[in-house]
Amino acid sequence: MADLIPVSYKLLKGMNESLILNVIRHNKYVSRSEIAKITNLTPPTVTNIINKLLEDGLVKEDKLGESSGGRPPVILKINNEAFDIIVIIIGTDIMEEYLLDAELTIKESKVDNIKKEDAESIFKLLFDRIRYLKDISKKEIAGIGIVVRGPVKSSEGISVFSPNIGWRNVPIKDMIEKEFGIPTFVENDVRAMALGEFYNGIAKNVGNVVFLKVGHGIGSTIILDGKIYRGINDMAGEIGHTTIDVAGPKCSCGNYGCFEALASEKALVNNVVKRIKEGSYSLVSEYVNGDLENITTRFVYKAAEEGDEVALSELNKIAIYLGIGIANIVNIFSPELVLISGGIVRGRKFIEDVVLETIKKRSFEANYSSCSIAFSNPDYNTALMGISNIILDSIL
């Protein structure tokens, strides 16, 4: 590529160049004539811009498209050799590190266990891994994406509070950019996952979506007209802390009867443990040799597979509360899609029917009939795709 730094492309060139680059990126394989139709730019304008993008090495010509009788069109795609990006996903117990090319193909990946690491050690590991991936890349690093749990001020790149590692008001973006001189983008894990579904997954091209991550807690992202609704303080979407039952159990936020306290996987485990302590027999207790502190959702789902009454009844209870919470979402937002993700998807077969029945009973018919309820694919790394697209949307 010429002496053009990819991260500066949007600023150095113009809106039409950026528009065409992103049309090519999102459509994978597209011809010049298709680009003209999508962008409403004239064919000569498209041709001139494409020629410059080819010269700069940001796009390349690929196989010929299908002919409709005349000369077959030449297909264009993003040049995967143009640059690389780095993505780090900091989870509860592990940190995932990726080097991807411009087409978001993974070139290098690594996983580190951070379960027993303190905040300072995790910072050191984070910087070491960025340095390692930068050193092994043969290309310009166009951007770095960091995904963390907990609330994030995305525009400032600040981790407001990451519960698993104890970070509070950490200016991740500034720290990494000062160290490496590479544009850095920071996002909350649930928003990154939602964007991954929006760009490449079940929610692709769906303009109005409420994304729910139901795991140890309940997080959510609201997408309206194709854009994340962030609220005035970048904190919108705390559906997990809406009240379902004022007489319900105490939530981690300090209130009582929150959606999260009643319908999360943490609530599921708490309920199973409570039943066993009260004298109910369950295979779950056998799986952990009576040590109830070692009970996890994995054992609950395993017991449910074996027909365990306690596991099945507590899953049914979670399903009812989950349905009530989603019915509230359907009535408030009237979205096209509510997409359920997170660890609860592993128990889908035990809860889906009850969840859907409860939503139907408690939603306005007009809202329910126009809304789809779906479960995500647990094997798809939505957070990786989400933060990668945030980077590319910002630099191209």
UniProtKB/TrEMBL annotation:
A Pfam family this chain is assigned to: HTH_24
Q: Spell out the SMART domains in the cross-references.
A: HTH_CRP
GO function terms (MF aspect): DNA binding
The superkingdom of the source organism is: Bacteria
State the InterPro entries in the record. ArsR-like_HTH, ATPase_NBD, HTH_CRP, ROK, WH-like_DNA-bd_sf, WH_DNA-bd_sf
Tell me the keywords, alphabetical order.
Answer: Carbohydrate metabolism, Xylose metabolism
* Domain (HTH crp-type) ranges: 20-77
Keyword Phosphoprotein annotated: no
**Position of the signal peptide:** none
Query: Among its keywords, does the record have Heme?
Result: no
Protein family? Belongs to the ROK (NagC/XylR) family.
Q: What is this protein called?
A: ROK family protein
The organism named in the record is Thermoanaerobacterium aotearoense SCUT27
The record lists the lineage as: Bacteria, Bacillati, Bacillota, Clostridia, Thermoanaerobacterales
